[in-house]
Write a structure and sequence with these properties.
Radius of gyration: 22 Å
Largest sheet: 6 strands, antiparallel
Protein name: DUF5103 domain-containing protein
Number of strands: 30
Number of helices: 3
Structural class: mainly beta
Organism: Lacihabitans soyangensis
Helix content: under 10%
Distance between the termini: 35 Å
Shape: globular
Length: about 425
């Protein structure tokens, strides 16, 4: 079959973690959120990531929950801690979804081998920690097909409300993707925006009408609340066997944002970076240096983890089992919100769910205490409008075009005769390596 090259030039206004929400038509139904924790306060540090023997084991926390189905030794791994510190019977179930994260009509036998109930029997007990916990891990089974999936974890049974859910993706690399990130070409946005150029090579992949049949989704910084679907109507023929994505409005534009703040919680015996005070106890209490608004300051180049975290500690022992839990107090120095709008803390440390800060009239600071495992954590601050529930991610963080961003390109296709879309291509792109 003839080789077909599709050129897509995508103007994305993005940031390295904080930008206006733009989910296009991609959504998660209330029954399949993929990130919910059912409000429990005992399951902590939930991680789902792709891993292969060539990866650095200590850096696996940064890996996306995305895996190539055709790499034999690649796996999806789930890890979490149970702070009740006693054995519990956990089991997992896998739900297949279409590209839009709606539950598909596929029977379980069409995407899984065997019965759709997997017992999570691999657990270890924490060692020499003030807060005891059980650490569970689970290697997900291979799926028969590529696409979108949700992992549901239950206690005692696989019915009712899951303890938590996580999204993951499995792909077959049938289409080539290449691209890069450059400053925005429009002078109006070059200080605050970036431009993502993507090249798609169909090679020998059999597709009759790529403009109609392909579904292209962009994700920013591994955040499923930062998904944008590219409209096929924007694919314009720009030559023999090639297409360009042209923008006729601003619906796919994102703000640039800022690098994340971070705190080093790797030790209780010495102050890590951005630690104000340590109070030893059971558990240890850590106070983070009081934070201020950054949107009115200049850009500061700093490495971060796209709003994520890395579990590690400076003491000896196995990181997963010897890292202790701490009570970590965050404070934000801003004027009291007379409007009633709610300052929030954001990041993977709160599962991207934006937890509300409380105003302390004695200190005149907004405060939030979180139970966190030892490690290095990114975080930021947002403002929730109480009238329309919208989250403002710019007010405290600002927008700078130099912000380090990660993008992922997902391409879905529903071949003739198939009952659901397949994930036929995936690529991660960064503006800095």
């Amino acid at each position: 079959m003839r080789n077909v090259v599709v050129y897509i030039f995508i103007l994305l206004f993005t940031h390295f973690g904080f930008c206006a929400k733009n989910t296009g038509s991609v959504k998660s139904p209330e029954t399949l959120k993929g990130e919910s924790t059912s409000g429990n306060d005992y399951i902590k540090t939930i991680l789902l990531y792709g891993y292969s023997p060539n990866d650095n084991f200590n850096e696996r926390y940064n890996n996306a929950a995305v895996i190539n189905r055709n790499i034999a030794n690649a796996s999806l791994i789930l890890e979490f801690d149970d702070l009740r510190a006693k054995y519990a019977s956990f089991s997992a179930k896998i739900i297949h979804c279409d590209y839009n994260w709606e539950k598909s009509n596929l029977a379980e036998m069409e995407y899984l081998e065997g019965f759709n109930e997997f017992f999570i029997n691999n657990y270890q007990i924490s060692q020499n920690t003030k807060t005891p916990y059980y650490h569970y891990s689970f290697k997900l089974p291979k799926t028969k097909i590529s696409g979108n999936f949700i992992l549901q974890v239950f206690e005692n049974q696989t019915e009712g409300t899951p303890v938590f859910e996580r999204k993951f993706r499995v792909f077959d690399q049938m289409i080539g993707i290449d691209g890069g990130i450059i400053p925005a070409q429009d002078p109006q946005y070059w200080k605050t925006h970036q431009q993502l150029n993507v090249k798609i090579d169909l090679g020998n992949y059999n597709i009759a009408f790529p403009q109609r049949e392909l579904k292209i989704v962009i994700r920013q910084n591994q955040r499923d609340d930062k998904l944008t679907e590219i409209k096929n109507t924007n694919l314009v023929n720009s030559g023999r066997n090639s297409f360009s994505l042209k923008y006729f409005d601003s619906e796919n534009l994102f703000k640039a944002g800022n690098e994340f703040r971070f705190v080093d919680l790797t030790s209780s015996f010495k102050k890590g970076q951005n630690i104000q005070a340590i109070k030893l106890g059971t558990p240890d209490e850590i106070t983070v240096v009081t934070q201020n608004k950054r949107s009115n300051k200049g850009y500061l180049n700093a490495y971060d983890n796209d709003g994520g975290y890395i579990i590690t500690n400076l003491e000896n022992g196995e990181i997963d089992l010897n890292s202790d839990y701490m009570e970590v107090k965050f404070t934000l120095n801003i004027p009291y919100e007379e409007s009633g709008n709610k300052p929030m803390i954001a990041g993977k440390l709160v599962d991207w769910e934006n937890e509300e800060l409380d105003f302390n009239p004695n200190t005149q600071l907004y405060e939030k205490t979180l139970t966190l495992k030892q490690g290095v954590y990114d975080f930021g601050f947002t403002l929730k409008n109480v009238n329309n529930e919208k989250i403002d991610e710019d007010i405290y963080e600002g927008n700078f075009s130099d912000t380090n961003n990660t993008y992922e390109v997902f391409i879905y296709h529903k071949p003739p005769g198939k009952r659901s879309e397949l994930l036929v291509a995936y690529q991660m792109l960064k503006n800095r390596q």
